[in-house]
Structure formats: C-alpha cells, structure tokens
Amino acid sequence: MSTDDKNRAIAAAILPLVGGAGNISSVAHCMTRLRLGLRDRSLVQDDALKALPSVMGVVEDDTYQIVLGPGTVARVTPELEALIAEAPAPAHSADDLAAQGAAIKAAQKAKNSTPFKLFLRKIANIFVPLIPALIGCGIIAGLNGLLINLGWLPGVTPALAAIASGFMALIAVFVGYNTAKEFGGTPILGGAVASIIVFAGVAKIEVFGQALSPGQGGVLGALGAAVLAVYVEKWCRRWVPEALDVLVTPTLTVLVSGLVTIFGLMYVAGEISQGIGDFATWLLAHAGAGAGFLLGGLFLPLVMLGLHQALIPIHTTLIEQQGFTVLLPILAMAGAGQVGAAMAVYRKLPRNTSIRRTIKSALPAGFLGVGEPLIYGVSLPLGRPFITASIGGAFGGGFIGLFNMLGDQVGSTAIGPSGWALFPLLDGNKGLGGTIAIYAGGLLVGYVVGFLATYFFGFSKELIEEFNVDTEETPAAAAPAATTTPAGAAATTEGPAPEPAKV
User: How deeply is 98 buried, as exposed, middle or buried, from its count of CB atoms within 10 A (0-12, 13-18, 19+)?
Assistant: First the structure.
C-alpha cells in the first residue's frame, strides 16, 4: 500500500467513528493532533476509535482531538477533508437542526474553560501554525553554524544564512496576520499593521527622544498592534456607512493602529521584550539550578492545566533576541522524567499486559519528545507516577540550570520538538559539542531519577494489588484509563490540550 493510500485508509477508518461527515463542523491539526469540531458528541465511538492502530489516544477539550503523532497528522488531515468534501450533503429537518443546536449548547456548557484559559488558547493558536517554519529555519541555522565553524562550503553558508534568517526577520508579520484572524478581524490588516515593526524606514522616526529600530518590540509588539487593529476595525464596521466601508474601514484601521504602534507600542513592547531577555539571562545565571529544578518539575502540571501556552511568546521573544531560547531545553526534561517513570511502571507491573503493551508502543514517541501517549495512557491515570515523573523532570531541569549558572548556556533555536528531536536545534554560547553533552546529560538525569522515583515511591501496596493483574483475563481489575489497548494506541483522559510544547 502506498503512503497516500495508507493515510486515506486511516482517514476512512476515523470518519465513521466520529459520526460521519455530517457530524464534523471543522477540521484542523497541530503538531500531533487531529482537531475536530463535532455537532453531536454522542455519535463518537470512543472505544473503537482508540482501538485503531494509528490512534495514540484522544483528548477532549474545546475540540475533539485525536492523537496521531507528528508527520502522520499532517498527511491524514487533508485526506479526511477530501472524504468530507466527497460525502453527500445531508438533508436537515427542523428536528435535526434543533438536536444539533441542543448538542452544541450542551457541549459548550460542559466545557471547563475560564476566560484566562480561553485567552491562552488564542495565544497558542497564533503561534502554533508558525512552529513548522521555526523548526525548519532553526535546523538550517544550526547546520549553517556547524559549516561555518568547520570552515566548509564558504560559498554556500551565506545562502543558508539568508534562508534561515528570512522567516525570523518577518515573523512579526505572520504573528500579526494570525492574531487578527484569531481575534475576529481581517487577517491581512493585522499583518499590514504588524509589518510596520520590521520596516527599515522606522529608523528615521524618533519616539521619546530615541530613534526606533526595525524589529523593535518583536512578536509582542506585533501581537499588540494586531489586537488593536481588530478593535479599530470592529469599531469602524459598526459606525462607518456600508457604502463607504470598503474604503474607510481598512484605511482607518491601518492608519490609527499604525500611528499607535509607531509612537507607543513599539517602544513599550521593546522594553518588555528586553526585560524578558534580561530576566531569563539573570535568573539562570544567578539561580540556574533552583530555577531549572522548578521549571522542569512544574512543566507537566502546567501542561495538564493548559497554562504552558503562556510560555510560547516568551520562547519566541528569546529566539528573536538571542537566537535561541534557554527555557525549552530545561522544560524538555519533563519528558525525560516521563520516559523514566514509564520504564519503572513497566517493571513494577509485570502481569498487566495491557499497560506494558501501551508503554512499549508509546516509548519511541516519548524518546522523541511526544509524551501524550505516556501521560494520558500511563502516568496520569495511575496518579503517583505522574508526580514521580515530574520529580525526574525537576532533577533534569536542575542539571541543565546548574550549567547555565556556571556560564554554559544551553538553548534551542526553535520551539516545538523536545527529547531526542531537540538535538538538531540545540545552540549555546560555548560550542555545539559542549551544548549537546549538557543536554544529553540532563536527559540521562531525567530518565534515571524518573525511573528510581517511580520504582521506589510511585506505587502504594494497594495500587500494586489493583493494577498488577493480567488484564487479558480480568479486564475489570484495571481502571478505565488503563483498559486493554492494542499496540500503537494509548487510552486517554479528558484534559486541556498540551500544544505547541510537547514533552
């Protein structure tokens, strides 16, 4: 079977299990998940869906999310969209529409969403689409740096530098476009206002007695400028006569937002961005081990609460300023603790073939930084192993933080990957070899501490008695989140989506 046929087969298997084409209101994907908007949640066959070999798990949040893994999800999504487009349009009666409306209302009521989490979700939706370009350009930048250090291909390295730097030079435009789109405005107007920030001509403008610099304010300035543009545009749509709307609204939106951006937002956002960079550098230089310990230990709980999304603009700002983010390698240690904890669970439950099979199928993804199958299928349902996994992440983060405090900065040129997948994106201030060695040492510490903490402290006597049973013979003995799962799949529980920072 060809790759295209395989991806179409996966999409064809998923479609009827989520209620068919008529039950899907929207289709999107992130790094690892297929995100579906559903009209009637009750039509989804959860158990059958989790049993598909290609499905690593499901997560229910503002959308129904099917974990397919990196690479696969990007290929399956267009196939699913094609199948939906080919499906005949259903005939809707008044009763059908009423039922759909009731289902949507019930789903909205059931959401556990606070205004703060909804805001963070919007922020994540702005930056997550940019991650593939950040990864690609980051890897090219790392390759170019290696070639320069070795003195190889001097005629090629300037071209690689241009390819790697072009996106980052204009990232503010993409942030502005996505921000306007996410906050309900016209995307191109958001991009137009944000483009002012990177325009070379702003260097001729003085604000508060200082000449502006192209790029000043970076992604934070672009985000603020685009949000302002959305509010100006909405005000114009409400008050400008319809006959003049096509001329007046875009003109006023760009003019008003642009002036505020030039004479206020660029300066303020620039000061904030500089403060973020200075604080991160100071924190790791003076309290690196302690800060790394806290960040590495708290990241898994932050992911479960959906609060990790607040870090995305900080990562991007650090990459803009310093060329890499020193926070991501520390946070990636949470995934190492998760892997170590899973290995300990495997050893502690020799009779539970279901959980052991889930661990064996999910460990390769865990080593590559995709921790969702292990989190939702193993550690979180068991309880204590989730805590001991966080302890492993804390010690791994403390290890990397200690070296930062000693002057060896370890950073990533892009956000998104972690685990072993982060190696091609590593960068630092003391040479690539030392940076790789420190990061690898942190992973090893996370694996070992996560394993030992889980093996010795992750199970009570009662938990062992409950879960160390042959689930093939007595499936009722296991908890719902750890029931029999085919190889390649992982059971999940409901919770906030932990995107675009995978561990």
Answer: exposed
